[in-house]
Design brief:
Shape: extended
CATH architecture of the largest domain: Alpha-Beta Barrel
Helix content: 40-55%
Strand content: 15-25%
CATH class of the largest domain: Alpha Beta
Oligomer: single chain
Strand order of the largest sheet: 20-21-23-24-25-26-27-28
Length: about 850
């Protein structure tokens, strides 16, 4: 028995000796696993990515898997240009974008040392100054906690460097991280070479494709030229045949000439002008033009056609030639200006028979699609003689035929005019009937959806009210439907998409209601339904639920899925209603209540809603008047150091005493300002008050006036864009106030409701010297990401959290944990709402540094004026 115990004890001792070895093996295994994964990922990148611009972010992500790498950059040395190209640069604190920098400029930097010596560097906060003092290296940029850089080599040649750095004390690098980065760096170089080679190959392929396309275009051009020669031969033959024939009318002759010219030289616009026997009037027997559809006969003057007739030769005229003709008084100025604005080129050729000019044939082009050249001019000059001969022959023949036909045409014309007049009168009668019906329909229906409009709906609703008074047992109800996100859909996709969206909404609502119910569109995104002949209110509630579910389904507009929702107010028609507008008003009030409760629901109207709505309207109107009149009472509430009960700054706030409703809660009028679009005006009011207070303190020679600070609550509007934050700082300076005398408090709930990308704007305020406070922490999601991401100077714990400290051990532990985090993240805690001695002692025991509340004000001797209006 004793021997077995001895054996067991020896086994346990051996096991204890093996534990460190096992831990070391586990550590090496995990390290090997990370290296293996990184190499596999790099290999995948080399075979899957075709562009270097996409490769660097992927490498950054791989490195971040085995070591902290929020800040990383990759640089390459261009030996032929003596430049250092920062192809990828991501840094937490240095916001500037670095690209190519002279190698001489960075010769003594950390990066320059890597590229020059080809040796890796591992700088920590502890050894940084020693290494810099013992070398010619100079630190540039923001000082980091750790800095690790390794060279990128192709064989023995240093081609670049990859650097990671940490600004966080909690994220330190080890020798193992350096070795891992050294190990994968060569694989990164191989990956870069493969991607670069693939990118070069694709570029070569694109160049070859472009060359082949160019050769093909040259072949197509040669084929086109040969086809033009064949077309020219065919056209000359057709014109010769046409000039030898006198059959057919002149209109067909002109059109045939135009078709031949269009086929050969491209002539969408063509006209033939002839002078009369006295050479005084210019007629246009054929005229086809896309810009000037009609032209009338006119006396000979200073036009382009008259210039060709006077000159007696073919002319190629462009806007430059037009200006020259106008300058030489060959062309009227107004005609020249009109032609220069629209015409690109014109070819005009005189039609000459036996030395007499009969007129002109011309073609012209507009825009840049067609420009005539000298080759086109020579062709038209060649065929013009054949056209002139054919015109002369056709002229004599047609004169005889025209005389014989004229009498017959007059009789036929009179008869046709009579039939036309009768048909026209009959058509007018029918059109008036249709117009009357259409007017009656349009007056009572929405032009977009085809639904009933407000006029028709009110008429039917008035009938329902009359029926309810006569037959009290009949049930009627109105639902008021308001859509969510319609303005966003309309603004982002355009009005056409908004119209299609409203049409689809109308179809969906119509599919949810009964056949005899009346659906109408009042305008915008507001729809109403009149229900009658139903048993109980449950029937209407079921239909409202169906409508909400139907509209919640995605809408496919222009091949994009968009989402909306519906808020519905229900008003049952009782005998007390007198007008249709009263029913719509109450249904609208119920809908408004549904939207305020979170949208996507229905609410049945009761009288309290109307009273609440009237009260809110009264409060909003009074709020606007008080804000415009600068009539709020201003008060302060100091923030104290809990150890010596000395005030560190004073929070400025306002009180509003409504004449009939009494004191309005602070949260209520801030919410009212946001809903009424008065947030910016409210912020400006508070900022001006704070500046006035600081100026008053400075001018009154109060004790420690230069150390006093004033805090105000600001909306997150100024954090949405960096330019807004910069404008805020400029405004403070214009007011003659030093920014470091101001404290800005931002509500945690407002940050939760909006985007988290406020860091650039917060940095602008921080750099200006403004003290930043995260207010009401713990009242919402209480996300720790705010504490890590945003450089707040103070975090103010919500008063409800402080109130429960004396009876909640868990909350006290959470406060102590938050106090420990504050030391690492360089912010200080302020406990809000300290009203009792017990709360004060609990916070002091938890080592909370600062506080605010009635207890501190009562027990501390402070010289801050509580009513700031009286102070200034």
């Amino acid at each position: 028995m004793n021997s077995e115990n001895v054996a067991n004890e020896l086994s346990l001792e051996e096991l204890r000796e093996l534990v460190p070895q096992l831990q070391q093996i586990t550590k090496k295994y995990k390290r090997s696993e990370r290296i293996q994964k990184s190499l596999f990922d790099i290999s995948e990148l080399a075979s899957s990515i075709n562009e270097l611009s996409s490769l660097y972010p992927a490498i950054h992500e791989i490195i971040s898997d085995f070591m902290p790498a929020k800040s990383l950059f990759v640089a390459f040395y261009e030996e032929e240009n003596e430049l250092i190209d920062f192809v990828y640069f991501v840094d937490e604190f240095d916001e500037q974008v670095i690209q190519k920098v002279s190698a001489e400029e960075l010769k003594h930097s950390l990066t320059g040392h890597l590229l020059r010596t080809g040796e890796h560097l591992f700088l920590t906060r502890e050894n940084r100054q020693t290494l810099l003092n013992n070398s010619s290296i100079k630190s540039m940029g923001a000082d980091s906690v750790d800095w690790v850089g390794v060279p990128l080599k192709r064989g023995s040649q240093v081609i670049g460097a990859i650097v990671v750095q940490s600004y966080d004390e909690t994220e330190r690098y080890s020798q193992e991280d350096l070795e891992l980065l050294l190990f994968v760096s060569q694989h990164i170089v191989n990956c870069l070479d493969r991607v670069k080679s693939r990118e070069l190959t694709e570029k070569t392929i694109r160049q070859r494709t472009k060359q082949m396309r160019q050769i093909n275009e040259e072949l197509q051009e040669e084929i086109s030229e040969r086809q033009k020669v064949e077309a020219l031969q065919q056209a000359l033959f057709e014109i010769s045949e046409l000039s030898a024939s006198i059959e057919g009318n002149m209109d067909d002759f002109y059109r045939t000439i135009h078709d031949i010219l269009s086929r050969l030289i491209g002539a969408p616009n063509c006209y033939i002008a002839l002078v009369d026997n006295d050479n005084k009037i210019l007629h246009f027997p054929y005229y086809k033009d896309e810009v000037y559809p009609q032209v009338k006969s006119r006396p000979l003057g200073l036009g382009v056609t008259e210039y060709i007739i006077r000159n007696g030769s073919a002319e190629l005229i462009d806007p430059t030639k037009v200006k020259q003709l106008a300058a030489n008084n060959e062309l009227a100025v107004d005609t020249a200006n009109s032609i220069s604005k629209k015409m690109t080129s014109l070819i005009g050729v005189p039609l000459v028979v036996d030395g007499i000019i009969l007129g002109v044939i011309a073609v012209q082009s507009y825009g840049n699609e067609k420009r005539y050249n000298l080759r086109d001019l020579e062709f038209l000059r060649y065929v013009s003689h054949h056209i002139a001969v054919a015109l002369e022959r056709k002229k004599y023949s047609d004169n005889i035929q025209a005389y014989n036909q004229r009498l017959a045409n007059e009789v036929k014309q009179r008869t046709e005019e009579l039939h036309t007049t009768n048909a026209f009168l009959q058509k007018q009668i029918e059109e008036r009937k249709q117009a009357q019906l259409q007017l009656e329909h349009d007056a009572h229906h929405d032009s977009l959806t085809g639904l009933a409009n407000r006029t028709l709906f009110n008429t039917r609703l008035d009938l329902a009210l009359a029926s309810k008074k006569r037959y009290a047992s009949h049930n009627y109800a109105v639902i008021f439907i308001d859509l969510d996100r319609f303005k966003q859909i309309n603004d982002s996709l355009g009005h056409y998409a908004g119209d299609e969206f409203l049409k689809e909404v109308a179809r969906r609502i119509d599919s949810c209601i009964r056949g005899h119910d009346l659906l109408a569109r009042l305008g915008g995104d507001e729809f109403v339904v009149l229900f009658d002949n139903f048993e109980t209110a449950t029937d209407i509630e079921e239909i409202a639920s169906r409508i909400i579910k139907s509209i919640a389904q995605p809408f496919n507009i222009e091949n994009k899925d968009v989402y909306s929702g519906a808020s519905i107010g229900i008003a049952s028609i009782e005998s007390g209603y007198q007008k249709a507008d009263e029913v719509l008003r109450d249904a609208d009030a119920a809908m408004y209540q549904a939207k305020s409760l979170g949208r996507g629901r229905y609410i049945i109207f009761d009288k309290t809603m109307r009273e609440k709505l009237l009260e809110e309207l009264e409060i909003e109107s009074a709020f606007r008047k008080v804000l415009n009149a600068d009539a709020f009472e201003n008060y302060s509430q100091p923030v104290f150091d809990l150890q010596n009960k000395q005030a560190i700054y004073s929070e400025c706030y306002i009180r509003w005493e409504h004449p009939t409703l009494g004191r309005i809660k602070r949260e209520q009028y801030f919410q009212l300002a946001e809903q009424s679009g008065l947030t910016v005006e409210m912020d400006k009011f508070m900022l001006n008050k704070a500046c006035n207070i600081l100026r008053y303190w400075g001018q009154s020679n109060l004790n420690n006036a230069h150390q006093r600070k004033v805090a105000i609550n600001l909306s997150i509007h100024h954090l949405t864009q960096t330019c807004l934050a910069k404008s805020l700082v400029e405004y403070i300076k214009i007011c003659g106030i030093e920014p470091n005398k101001l404290v800005f408090e931002f509500d945690e709930n407002a940050l939760n409701r909006s985007s988290l990308l406020f860091l650039p704007a917060i940095k602008v305020l921080k750099r200006a010297g403004i003290t930043l406070v995260l207010d009401n922490f713990g009242s919402g999601l209480a996300s720790l990401s705010y504490l890590y991401t945003y450089p707040f100077d103070y975090v103010k714990v919500d008063h409800l959290f402080v109130k429960s400290l004396t009876r909640s051990e868990r909350n006290l532990k959470l406060l102590e944990s938050l106090r420990a985090i504050s030391g690492h993240l360089n912010f200080k805690l302020i406990a809000e709402g300290i009203d009792t001695e017990e709360q004060y002692q609990a916070l002091v025991n938890a080592k909370c540094e600062f506080g605010q509340g009635k207890y501190l004000e009562a027990s501390s001797k402070i010289d801050f004026a509580q009513n700031l209006d009286k102070a200034i």
